[in-house]
Amino acid sequence: MGIKKKELELYIHIPFCVKKCLYCDFLSAPSSEEERQEYVTSLCRQVRSYCGLAKAYHVVSIFVGGGTPSILEEDQILAVFEAVRDTFLVDGDAEITIEANPGTVTEEKLRAYRQAGINRLSIGLQSSENEELRKLGRIHTYEDFLGTFRLARRMGFGNINVDLMSAIPGQRLAGWEETLRKTAELRPEHISAYSLIIEEGTWFYEKYGEGRHAEELPGEEEERQMYRKTLEVLKEYGYHRYEISNYALPGYACRHNLGYWNRTEYLGIGTGASSLVDNRRWNFGEAPVELSVQEQMEECMFLGLRKMEGVSKARFQETFGRRMEDVYGRVLKKMVGMGLMEEIGGFVRLTERGIDVSNGVMCEFLL
C-alpha cells in the first residue's frame, strides 16, 4: 500500500498587465510580447523543477493570479498547464481559477482555458460606474465587463467570481449599492467585495496618502455603512458571507482561498509568489524559513478568524496538542467580554462588532 499523498494548492503568478492601476501595489507591470514569452518559458521550467516535491502531494486547487493572467496568449496558458499536469497529480475535481480582466479576454482564450481544465473565472470589475473605473485607472468600461461576463457564460463557465471595490474616490453609499445590485442581478456564483486600501508605493498613495485630499474619499462612517450595505444587499440576493470580504451562492465558496485561511499547504510558482510547505514559508527566490509552533498557532488564529465560522477548538487541539483556552484563555475572555468575539458550536469567531475592528482583534492573538 503506497504512502497517502497530502493535499497541496498551487498558486501561479503572472506579473504582467496592460497598464498598472493607480491603486495597485501587487507585483505587476506592463511588458512586451518577448518578455512574456521568456517568462512563460522560465515558469514552465520552474514548475517541472518541483517533480521531487510533487511525489508526496495531490493538487486540490490551482489559482493563476497576477497582474493580469488573461494577457497571456492561448498557447502560453496551455504550455503552463501542460507543465503542471506533467509534474503534479491534479485531482479530477480540483478547483482551477484564472483571473481575467475585461479588455483582455477573447473567445479563443476562453476556449483554451476550458481545454486546460480551468473551471473558474475571477473577473475584475471593481465598479459599475465608468467614472469610478476611470479614477481607478482601469482599462475597461462597465460595458466591456458585461461583454466579458456574457461571453464567459456562453463558453460554458458556470463558476465565476466578480471582484468589487468600495470606498473609491468620489464614491457614495448610493453608488456602491447600485454596483452591488447590478452585479448580483447577473448571478455570478461568487462576489469578492473589498474596501480600497491606500498602499505605499502607488499613485494613489502619492495623492491620498497621509490624509491628503481626504475630502475626496468616503469617511470612516460611510465606509462602515458601505460594508454593512454589502452584507444586506448580497444577502437579499441569496449570497452567503463566508469570509470577511467574500460572498458566495450555496456550494460556491472559493476552495482555494479557504485553503489559505485553513493553512492548507500551498506552493507559489513565479516571481513574487509565496509558499507554505511542511510548516516552512518562503517567497520565490528566498530560502525557506521554518515556522515555530508559536507562529503556527498565531497564523491559525488570525487567518481562521477571517472566516465567518471562525476557528475550531477541536482542530486547534488536534493540530497543536494544546487546548485553545490554555494558549489564548486570557485573550478569549477579554474579547468575548468586550463583545468582539463569541463561541458557537465549538468554534470561536468574530461578532459583527468584532468584524468592524477585525485587525485590532487579530493582533491580540500574536503571542
Task: Describe the secondary-structure layout.
Elements: E1 6-14, H1 33-48, H2 51-54, E2 57-66, H3 74-87, E3 89-100, H4 107-116, E4 120-126, H5 130-136, H6 142-154, E5 160-166, H7 173-185, E6 190-195, H8 203-208, H9 220-236, E7 240-243, E8 246-248, H10 255-261, E9 266-269, E10 274-277, E11 280-283, E12 289-290, H11 293-304, E13 311-312, H12 313-320, H13 324-337, E14 341-344, E15 347-350, H14 352-356, H15 358-363
Helix pairs in contact: 1-3, 3-4, 7-9
Task: Provide the β-strand percentage band.
Answer: 15-25%
Task: Work out the helicity level.
Answer: 40-55%
Q: How would you sum up the global shape?
A: globular
Report the top-level CATH class of the largest domain: Alpha Beta
Can you describe this structure?
The chain is α/β, with parallel strands linked by helices. It folds into two domains: 6-260, TIM Barrel; 310-367, no CATH class. The chain is 41% helix and 22% strand. It is built from 15 helices and 15 strands. It has helices at 33-48, 51-54, 74-87, 107-116, 130-136, 142-154, 173-185, 203-208, 220-236, 255-261, 293-304, 313-320, 324-337, 352-356, 358-363, and strands at 6-14, 57-66, 89-100, 120-126, 160-166, 190-195, 240-243, 246-248, 266-269, 274-277, 280-283, 289-290, 311-312, 341-344, 347-350. Strands 7-8-6-5-4-3-2-1-9 form a nine-stranded mixed sheet, sandwiched between helices. Helix 7 (173-185) links the parallel strand 5 and strand 6. Helix 3 (74-87) packs parallel to helix 4 (107-116). The protein is globular. The two termini are 42 Å apart.
